[in-house]
Write a structure and sequence with these properties.
Mean pLDDT: 91
Largest sheet: 7 strands, mixed
Helix content: 25-40%
Oligomer: single chain
CATH topology: Rossmann fold
Structural class: alpha/beta
Order of helices and strands: EHEHEHEHHEEEHH
Shape: globular
Low-confidence stretches: none
Distance between the termini: 43 Å
CATH superfamily: HUPs
Radius of gyration: 17 Å
Strand content: 15-25%
């Protein structure tokens, strides 16, 4: 099975996340995508909703898509949650699967600052997606790429090789300029978030009084 791994705080999950996942699944012929809300991330957002709430919102958001699933594996940890640890556990849980780590170009460029980046890029192949406000051409600056890449090479359908032997495929997706930060601000201002998040997520935020202050 070809399985995509899509991690994040999902604070909250929104239609941009879901559309990106669907386009990645289709373009890369993935059999499923596993959403993994972070439990106790090293760089915590100031208004991060409790992990159980974020998991519940993701579960509601993906339940209508038979190719999407959600895991609470990071929520069960009491210590800081690191991507390397998660991927090592996933390799044990799905030893026969091809795993692909889905992330935005901004996060890809930040990997050298993550915990044990050298080990991380040897564990899994990457699918790097475009993000509003970030030029995909900036990805060629990454020291993770083996040799010298050019902006033209990012437009190819062939993945580029990473230091250590794994690959990174750079994939353009529909540029939906939706952010969790903006959604939280709208909630604080008592403004509508309809059509930015699934209806089930909008109702959950309202009924639990999330992001009010």
């Amino acid at each position: 099975m070809r399985r995509g791994i899509f991690g994040g705080t999902f604070n909250p999950i929104h239609l941009g996340h879901l559309r990106t996942a669907e386009e990645v699944r289709d373009a890369c012929m993935l059999d499923s995508i596993l959403f993994i809300p972070s439990g106790n991330p090293p760089l915590k957002e100031a208004d991060l909703a409790e992990a159980g709430h974020r998991y519940a919102m993701v579960r509601r958001a993906v339940e209508s898509n038979p190719y999407f699933d959600v895991s609470d594996m990071e929520l069960k940890r009491t210590e800081r949650s690191y991507t390397v640890t998660t991927l090592l556990e996933l390799r044990e849980e799905y030893p026969e699967d091809e795993l692909f780590f889905i992330l935005g170009v901004d996060a890809f460029l930040d990997i050298p600052t993550w915990w044990q980046p050298g080990q991380l890029i040897r564990l899994i192949d990457f699918i790097v997606v475009a993000r509003p406000g970030f030029d995909m051409a900036h990805a060629v600056r990454s020291p993770l790429l083996e040799g010298t890449a050019s902006p033209l090479s990012l437009s190819s359908s062939s993945p580029l090789r990473l230091e250590g032997g794994r690959t990174a495929l750079f994939l353009p997706v529909t540029p939906l300029d939706i952010s969790s930060t903006a959604i939280r601000r709208l909630v604080r201002e008592d403004r509508s978030i309809r059509y930015l998040v699934p209806e089930s997520v909008e109702e959950y935020i309202r009924s639990h009084g999330l992001y009010r202050g």
